[in-house]
Each structure stands twice: as structure tokens, then as C-alpha cells.
Amino acid sequence: MSVCVLGGVNLDHVARVAGLPRPGETVASRTLSQFPGGKGANQAVAAARLGAATRLLGAVGQDGAGDVMLDFLGGAGVDVAGVRRETDAPTGQAFITVDDAARNMIVVAAGANALYGADAANAADLGGAGIILTQFEATLAAIETIFTRPEAAGALKILNTAPALNEGAPLLALADILILNETELASFAGLDAEPADPDAAIAAARSLARPGQAVLATLGAAGAVAVRGDEVFRVTGLRQRAVDTTGAGDCFCGALAAALDRGLALAAAMAFANAAAALSVTRAGAAASMPLSAEVEALLATA
Known about the structure:
Layout: E1 3-6, E2 10-16, E3 31-37, H1 39-49, E4 54-61, H2 64-75, E5 78-79, E6 83-86, E7 92-98, E8 104-109, H3 118-123, E9 131-135, H4 140-148, E10 156-160, E11 177-181, H5 182-189, H6 198-208, E12 214-218, E13 224-228, E14 231-235, H7 248-261, H8 266-280, H9 293-302
Parallel strand pairs: 1-4, 1-9, 2-7, 4-5, 4-6, 9-10, 10-11, 11-12
Antiparallel strand pairs: 2-3, 7-8, 12-13, 13-14
Helix pairs in contact: 1-7, 5-6, 7-8, 8-9
């Protein structure tokens, strides 16, 4: 089997501050760094570093940032033959502010990512992937096209609903596994507020689940829960000293895909992904923070 990831490829600009600014407030940055990022790139790097043969579908510009991203992805073991070079838009950029509590605020300029539509997705080589993973940083047209192609009929289709887009709701039914964080779960389940505890998250996930579909909710430090039919799965959070939470959700998604790709059952794959995400927050950056399998296994052995 193998993993095919469709999604955003961005160069991240990360400013470290004491506290996140309030609306209208200006704060001083202590440092400004650049890291590889984008949800598609992050998830692909996570899957590749954790042992899955991983192909990325997406787009970058004909610019220096595109060169940086392709070099990094290739060095991380990701097959980038499916990443297009666009002349009509620059490589996507993300502007990220991280505070001393490791919380972040993110603004994304899609750039070339927005040009990867249905035609590109229809022409893409899926490489015979057994797992297809995507998120809402990909265009909705590309997601629908990839998921409904005949070549995808036998693949396990995973949709990460980040960022939460109301217009993406019709696509939820196309996935075999949905992955939502607390904010996204509240949005798509029609809740007035984020679930207050894991039991509330389970109830909200059950309200979204279609027959045969697994709905998985990531709960940050509280771990993750999932429902599939009458089954309920829970994993507790692993306490780590957080440095930067950027990309932790993407790490979870890529790690889950890699674990399922190696044949783990859903409960074991969730535990593996939970440990990988816990490790990722101990390092700065998004794609650069993705751990290796040996590190995840070592953490699980001591948990």
C-alpha cells in the first residue's frame, strides 16, 4: 500500500511573541523564522517520516519559495512528481504568530494552491495509493474529483476538515474517515460551542457519522476520540512540554495514515498518531517538527 496526500504547500513565516495580539493591537516579535509548511506538505512529511511511501499532489510557484519547498519535501522522502509548478501565482505563504504558551494565530495566502483544481486532480497520478488523505487547504473541486475517480474506489479516503469551510460540508459524505478538531467538530455538528469534554465530542461525532464511516475528533492535550457504528475509541493525551503547536493536527493526520497503511487497526493507529502529534509540539515549525517512527515507538513504550 501507499499514501497519496492532496493539499496545500506553503512557506511559513513564524514570529515568536510573548502573547498573541488582541484585535487592533501591535506586539513586538522576538524572532522571525521561515519553515516549510502547508497542510498537504505537513501531512505528507509526517506520513513519509513514519515509514509510508508517500506521494504529494499540489502546486507551488515558479519562485524561490517553491524551490525551497520541493527540496525539503524530497529530502523528507516525499514523492513530489505530482506537485505542479505554476507561472501565474506564487508559492503559498503562511504568516504565523506563536506565543509563550505555544498557541498560534495563522493567516494563509493560498497562491499557487488555489490553482490546483478539478482538471489537475483528474490528471494526477495517484500511484495506486491504498490511502488518500486530504484537507480543506486543497480546493473543494480537487477533493471531490480525487475522491470520486475510479482509481480511488478501493482506497481508504481520509478527509481532515481543516480549516472549517461550510461550503465543504457536502464532501464529508465522500470520506471513509473524517478527522476534525474541536472547533471544526462544533462547526459541522451545528453546536453553539466546542464540546466541553470527550463524551460531548463523542456525541457530536456520532451526529455526523454516516453508515460505515469513522468520525475522529482530536482534542488537543485531552487526546482523541472516534466513533464508527456502535464502536467508540478513546486515546488519552500524552503530556509533553509544548514549544509550538503549529502542525500538530497535520502530524496526527499523516501519522494516522501511515499507521493504517502499515496495517494497524483504527484504535492502535489513533494511539500511534496521538503520540506522534505529542512529539511534534516539542519542536519549532510545522513540517520540520514531524517525528520518526523510532521516536514515536519509544514514547508509546513509556506511556
